[in-house]
Amino acid sequence: MAVEDGRDEYTQDGTVDLKGNPVLRSKRGGWKACSFVVVYEVFERMAYYGISSNLVLYLTRKLHQGTVTSANNVTNWIGTIWMTPILGAYVADAHLGRYWTFIIASAIYLAGMFILTLAVSVPGLKPPHCTETNVANCRKASTLQLAIFYGALYTLAVGTGGTKPNISTIGANQFDDFEPKEKAHKLSFFNWWMFSIFFGTLFANTILVYIQDNVGWTLGYGLPTAGLAVSIVIFVAGTPFYRHRVPAGSPFTRMAKVIVAALRKWRVPIPNDPKEFYELDLEEYNKKGKFRIDSTPTLRFLNKACIKTGSTNPWILCSVTQVEETKQMLRMLPILAATFIPSTMIAQISTLFVKQGTTLERDIGSFRIPPASLAGFVTISMLVSVVLYDRYFVNILRKWTKNPRGITLLQRMGIGIILHIVIMMIASLTEMRRLSVAKKHGLDKTDGQVPLTIFTLLPQFMLMGIADAFFEVAKLEFFYDQAPESMKSLGTSYSMTSLGIGNFLSSFLLSTVSHITKKHGDKGWIRNNLNDSHLDYYYAFFAILNFLNFIFFMVITRFYVYKAEVSDSMEILKEDLGGSKVRSSN
């Protein structure tokens, strides 16, 4: 009995310390370890959004780029930011582990931020000053200045590729799935994770953008750079408290072996009894801190990879667990595809929404509101929504659904997609009103300020925050939760990839729509003078696109099968919910 009690003190999910030793649950992990991770993310979000929120205005005001060019340069850069996590996830899961991948990537990230600060500060590196109203008449930045500026931006992007997929995974790994209380904490982790990091976002979208607009870009970029340096120090300070996972080898190679093995045995009939499939002994998995997964009937063709044919070549014969891990990653791909359009909508916050704000009245007495600061309302509405969701919405719903999460992750994402349809309809109507006022005052010819308050745009920003509380939080948790234990970083990178492709898709759609609507001598929907543009048509097009995507999402979710839990913690939590309902009815 004493031996069993001693064993129970250690985590059961295979986590270890940096030296590979088993860890005591009381000494490492939990919210204590998470606090260092969360504080890091607050400062890191401040650094990232301190750059991205106002970048479109730097490109137009300092680098003298037009509406379409500046918006596309922002979305292409943000797209790269969110695509590089695939590489970071691979390095973490296959070679260095999440901790060391994160540390190295943080150094690259900080170097990019430092060079970027120099690029907007040092006289020889800054672009030439211009006071012309028409940016086409301004002297362009030199090749060297552009090379250093964009080189710094994309160095920063490489660094975030190693930090983004690993930091949230490191945080979630501090909770043991095999301990029901820790599993319950893990279910709330991603809600509070998003809540905490948006404090950094709020600071960036209010204080930093004000400094950039009214004080200068040197201090406006220098502060987030210093903040990032502080955040890295805080993360390293928490090292003695972290639980870690041992790298399990390249996830891409493991999946490729399954696909190749199945194709090479495409003529071999699949046996009816799953016991005839090849599988390692349970002890082999226990020794490595891994979990065995039973065979499932979904994506049945891949089961051919674990049919015994006499060969032990790993490109011909794979274990059932390896096959099931591959299935889990492939099953999520249609869901991933359905997240691209919502991610395209998010890209509008830092591009066209900000450009709209520059055309409206922004003065409150002597105070001038920075257009990018409206993104702060996205943050505020999300913070409030996440608290209400976690504290009230979940508690009410799980009494009826018996689901510890209240509703499923896909249902939560679906609500977010519906909200995106509503947002784009409201944005289109708001823009229609703005254009009407601009035309009434003859501003469609002069590109002047429209006599409407910037708070006219508030509904679309506020609703975007509520949509994020449903869609973005659920998306991140879904791809982490549904990925196999040995591929969590790769699963998390799916969420990042969604944002990356969404931003590239935004660039593609903006360029394509601008080009098509200029045919036959027309002026086009998107011009440098937004008062003479038709963003209302463009947003209406987005509303239709979101509606079609929602139909696609509904179809694919009908066929999605959630992975089996590796522990019985969820069942215990469900039983507790059932028991509490019985007690309350007595």
Descriptors for this entry?
586 residues; mainly alpha; two-stranded parallel ribbon; two-stranded antiparallel sheet; globular; disordered N terminus; disordered C terminus
Give a verbal description of the structure:
- This protein is mainly alpha-helical and 586 residues long.
- It is 66% helix and 2% strand.
- The protein contains 21 helices and four strands.
- The strands form two sheets. It has a two-stranded parallel sheet with strand order 1-4.
- Strand 2 and strand 3 form a beta hairpin.
- Helix 2 runs parallel beside helix 7, helix 4 packs across helix 6 and helix 16 runs antiparallel to helix 18.
- It is globular, with a radius of gyration of 26 Å.
- The chain starts with a helix and ends with a helix.
- The N terminus and C terminus are likely disordered.
What Rg do the Cα atoms give?
26 Å
Poorly predicted ranges (pLDDT <50, ≥5 residues)?
1-7, 580-586
- Major sheet strand order: 1-4
Helix content: 55-70%
In percent, how much strand structure appears in the residues?
under 5%
| H/I helix tally | 21
Estimate the mean pLDDT confidence. Answer: 85
Overall spatial form: globular
Run of helices and strands:
HHHHHHHHHHHHHHEEEHHHEHHHH
Alpha-carbon distance between the two ends: 37 Å
Report the biggest beta sheet as strand number plus sense, adding barrel if it closes.
Answer: 2 strands, parallel
Given helix and strand content, the structural type is mainly alpha
- The total strand number stands at 4
